[in-house]
Design goal:
Helix content: 40-55%
Structural class: alpha+beta
Number of helices: 3
Radius of gyration: 17 Å
Order of helices and strands: EEEEHHEH
Largest sheet: 3 strands, antiparallel
Length: 106
Amino acid sequence: MGGTKRSGDRYQFAGVDLGGIRNRNELRVINMMGQVLEHYPDVSRDVLNVQDIYALALNLLPARYTQRFSIVLNDPVTDQHVRDALQKAVEQVRANPTGPNRKFET
């Protein structure tokens, strides 16, 4: 990877720590996941399903990367956008589970 190093959750290049750069939507998705999943009691909260829902929801939203201490004046991604992405992700996981409730065709 030519000068790139990953150690745990730390990303570095040329001695510069890039670990403080995050997608602002990550925490928003995590914080809203519980309230959205309340409407889907049939969806298992096993590790793979939760990870799939999280990743799918993030992929449905535009990335909003910021550095530590960034001031965000305008965020075009609303809470409703996050809820909609989570709902789509939950419905996709419910239709195609990967965890212990996965349905295999015989």
